[in-house]
Amino acid sequence: MPHTLFISDLHLGAEQSHITQLFLRFLQRIAPKAEALYILGDLFEYWAGDDDLDAPLHRQITSALNTLATNNTRLFIMCGNRDFLMAGELAAACHATLLSDPTLLDLYGTPTLLTHGDMLCTDDAAYQDFRQQVRGDEWQQRFLSQPLAQRKAQIAQMRTMSASEKQRKTMSIMDVNEEAVAALLREHGYPRLIHGHTHRPGRALYHLDGHTCERWILGDWDKRGNALHCAGQECRPIELD
Ligand code: LP5
Ligand code: MN
Predict the structure, then answer these.
(1) CA distances to 81, 123, 124, 167, 175 from 170, in Å
(2) What are the residue ranges of helices labelled H in the chain?
(3) What is the distance in angstroms between the CA of the first residue and the CA of the last residue of the chain?
(4) Is the distance from CB of 122 to CB of 14 less than 8 angstroms?
């Protein structure tokens, strides 16, 4: 049956070789059966800029994605909060289309809104301030004009800071804000919503203004992988190992 797969939050990096192997197997055995694969952010542990495409891990991943996408599975990639510097060269290397966040899609007749999910975490004010700064064109141009090694060192510092900040934040601060979800659903005409980022896989239902909307939350790839499989009107999570 024609179907589409959604994944996010793989956080691939040199230290996650088990997950990299799992992902490569997924690209060879499971993804080719899908009409389309959507990666909804944080494919990589971090992305320092498209001039880092030559790193062996990056070549391995982009070439496997390219093989998938040049056969029968269309490939779409959205940036996450870790890899928002992914741009045109990365997309070209993967034969993928980069998606803006959010993106509304007609999925087998059901309007479906895709987002990484971090924009919905509006209670996390410190993160939203950081996000606003680093998503600006001027900041990105300045950051990307530095040598790659210097950028990586700054990202490493930021990752350490993020890990310690997260220890001080409550779980509810780091989850989506329900009013932000409702506002997004209203703004886009009450679609189905699919996102990642919070690493709390599941399904929630919203009854809003006489409409019922499904929200699917993708899990991260930690010990195992997971994907959302959508065919016709139905979506269901699948575990990968
Ligand atoms: O990703 P994760 O799970 O660790 O946590 C996120 C939020 N943290 C981040 C930061 C990224 O992890 C860091 C890597 C990004 C690489 C991008 C390249 C360019 C950046 C280079 C920076 C110099 O996204 C975390 C959320 C959590 O999700 C849950 O939603 O809480 O947010 C934070 O930890 C942010 C802190 O709360 C605020 C930090 C303020 C630091 C400001 C100094 C840096 C100034 C430089 C930028 C102008
Ligand atoms: Mn994320």
Answers:
(1) 19, 10, 9, 8, 9
(2) 17-29, 56-69, 88-94, 125-134, 137-144, 148-168, 178-187
(3) 22
(4) no
**Could you list the residue range(s) of the whole structural domain that residue 157 is in?**
4-240
Instruction: Give the DSSP letter of residue 44.
Output: B
pTM assigned to the model = 0.97
Q: Distance, CA 188 to ligand 2 centroid (Å)?
A: 22
**Number of domains making up the chain:** 1
| Cross-strand pairs, 132 | none
Name the token pair of 84. Answer: 């928002």
CATH number at residue 16: 3.60.21.10
pLDDT per residue over 177-209, tens digit each? 999 999 999 999 999 999 999 999 999 999 999
Ligand 1 centre and the CA of 155: distance in Å? Answer: 9
